[in-house]
Write a structure and sequence with these properties.
The protein is mainly beta. The protein is built from one helix and eleven strands, in the order βαββββββββββ. About 5% of the residues lie in helices and about 60% in strands. The two termini are about 25 Å apart.
């Protein structure tokens, strides 16, 4: 499936997933062509009610756009609602003219923000990624063949957010669900 974000899509998801409902496991992996105009953010959010959760897929930076205050960015994050606790995989291009985007992993627990720069992903190149959350246990980030571990709690209601800004990023084989 190829989908573009829209308010209709977000409204439909909200209607299907009432607050506190678990995010469904898809019948098939999803393709999300996240194509955001210069200076704009687009994406989707899904509520998650699980003590174990994972999202896996691939991402490819396709194009960067210029803007005076926004940078081309793609983000996948699992976050606790109402708290500054999250697991984040982010691609950030330093400018619209950059040949690629810097990939960084972040585990944020309140004011404690642990960042791990992973490397640069060139325009047109694809990388596999994953975020695996285990409440009360060890969390994992997967990038290519590398595995990074982190500690952090996202207790309470959570949500999965996939977004991009000021560029075209293609997410494929997106697959998420609980481990329960």
């Amino acid at each position: 499936r190829d989908m573009k974000p829209s308010s209709l899509f977000t409204t439909a998801l909200a209607a299907i997933l009432a607050p506190g409902a678990s995010a469904p496991v898809q019948a098939e992996p999803m393709r999300f062509a996240c194509d955001a105009p210069s200076g704009r953010v687009t994406g989707f959010q899904i509520p998650v009610d699980a003590k174990r959760f994972r999202i896996v897929g691939t991402v490819k930076p396709a194009a960067f756009r210029p803007h005076e205050s926004f940078t081309p960015t793609a983000t996948v994050e699992l976050r606790a609602r109402g708290a500054n606790n999250k697991m984040v995989m982010q691609l950030v291009a330093p400018s619209a003219q950059a040949a690629g985007a810097n990939l960084t992993l972040r585990q944020i627990n309140g004011s404690d923000d642990k960042s791990s720069p992973v490397g640069n992903l060139a325009i047109g190149k694809v990388v596999n990624f994953g975020i695996i959350y285990n409440e009360g246990g060890e969390n994992q980030f997967l990038v290519g063949e590398q595995v990074f571990t982190s500690q952090g709690s996202l207790s309470g209601q959570k949500e999965l957010a996939v977004s991009c800004s000021t560029g075209d990023f293609v997410f494929e084989q997106l697959d998420w669900g609980t481990g329960e």
